[in-house]
Structures are given as structure tokens and as C-alpha cells.
Write a structure and sequence with these properties.
Helices cover 47% and strands 13% of the residues. With 340 residues, it is α/β, with parallel strands linked by helices. A hairpin with a 2-residue loop joins strand 4 and strand 5.
Length: 340
Amino acid sequence: MKSQRTTKQPAHHRQYDELQNIANLDHFPKIRGYNYEQNHDEGFDLDRFLAAAATTGFQAANLAKAVDIVNIMRREHATIFLSCTSNMVSSGVREAIAYLAKHQHVHCIVTTAGGVEEDIIKLLKPFVLGSFEVPGEHLFDNGINRTGNIFVPNDRYAYFDKFLREFLDGLYEKHKVISTQRFIRELGLAAGKLENKEESYLYWAAKNSIPVICPALMDGSIGDLIHFFRQRHPDFRVDIAEDMDLIVKLTLNAEKAGAILLGAGVSKHFVLNANIFREGLDYTVYINTAEEFDGSDSGARIEEAITWAKIKPRTPAVKVHCDATIAFPLLVAATFAKKE
């Protein structure tokens, strides 16, 4: 005789059954957006506007939940991991990241190669706002690279090439083998010698001893230049294993751990994977537009991360399906940037 298996009912089924037993929904929050008429004479109120997101619905409600979760992270003095893809540094989100590093609101930053090199490139010469619609062939013929509607002329990389060659020569005299975190710290200290250093999040991270980790450092212009440097100095090594040692140590020493993950890819996963060692994050905020239907980790939602012990079950967690250039500055304004 076959034994019967009892399986736990999925969460969405349980919610559906609960709704069947509700006579009415009068105790549920009513959908209502920001009241533009209230205190009209006094002008727009950002705090009330952001608070109204909680009852606006759709992703506005998820953003409001993200605000609550970040405020809990801060109140509980959690170790906060911030991950970001390179396009966040390409854009004006870089200024928000620099603010967080300057005021020591986060304790570890994980990014990709572009997120390192473009912080330095912008110190040498800025990026400019272009258009999504300009034909790629026209831009190519004029020596202009495009990241969405952000234009990056080739001369920016010429400045970076010169800067990094000099940096690597100096670094090689002190280190033949170096982790990406130590490499980036040295880069941040070098950025501190530039006139507009305070715009750089790498500078503030180095100054405040906030580790910046890039597990895919070779995947960009900076990797090309390291490759060329190694043609002259084949004994120069970048040790990625030490970065894993560092982030695991941070997770294990964290009494409470929280993460704000902007975008997806390797930077998102590196933070999540490290927190498996402590059986999951306590507080989690995703902000990205990737979907789960191709099985990618980029699109994987909170529930999938729970199965891998990356996020603890029944802990405050939310995914905001939104362009992070919209959602993250609002999140920072509603949390870290508010007066205590």
C-alpha cells in the first residue's frame, strides 16, 4: 500500500482560500494616490508623496514596501550590501551611490567592471545625455559609444587608458598579486588625487574603508588594459578567491544582513550566494526589470532565492519591477537622505 504524502499548500493557494472566507474587504487598505490638493498653497510634499505610494498599487506599492524594509535595515543596524550593475554608474545613480559611501550608509559594494572604470572615467571627462533613437552606424562613424541614451565618446577611454597605465605601473611596484577589492581600493585612493574626487564613490569607499568587490573585473575596458599590462609583466595577478573570502567573512560576522540589489547579473548573485553561508539574508530589496521565465538568476524572484537559502523565509523582502534610475533615487530620498 502506497503511503500518502502530505504537501504544504503553496502560498498563493492559501491566500486564495483565505479570500474565499472573507465576507468583505473593508479592512483592506483602499487604493488611493497622492492628494495634490492637500496643502496646495504650501506646495508639493515629497514625504507625503512617497508615503502615498503604499496605497497607489502596482510597483508604487512595492517601492513603498522597499522603503519600509530599508528603514528596518537601518533601525536594526544591519550590515548592508549594495550591488549595482555598470549602467547604474553610467547614469546619474552614481551620485546616489557616492552619497551612500560618503556617509557610510552601506558596508559593502559589489559591482561589475564598468561600475569601476566608469566612476574613474567620469572624473576625467563626463558622459553626456544623448538619445535612444540616433542610429548606431552614425555614432560609430563619429567615434561615439552609446549606453542607452547616454553618449560616451572614444576620447573618454583615451584619458582612462593613460590614467590606468600609470596606475598599474605604480601598483606593480607594491603588488604582484592583488585581490579585486584591494585593486579597487588603490584605484579609489588614486582617484583622491584628482580635482573632482568627491564625485567618486570609489574615493569615498576607499576613504571610509568600505570594500568594493568586482568578481568580473576583466569584463570591460579595465580588463583589456590589465591584459595588455600582463604582456609586459606576466607575473602580475588579480586574485578573485580573496574577494570570496572577504565577503563570506562579512556575512558570517553580520548579526543582521540586508541587501539592496540594483539590476541583476553577477553582482546580484555574488551577494546572494555569499549569504548562503549564513543561511540567508534577513532583509532584501531587488530593483530590476528582469523576468524569471527563462530560468535566469537575473530574473529570479525572492521565492526562488529562498529555495537556495540566499534569503531567509518569512523575512522582509520585495522585488520592485522598475528601472532603477527611477526607483533607487526615490528610495534613497525616502530613507538614507532623510534627517534622523
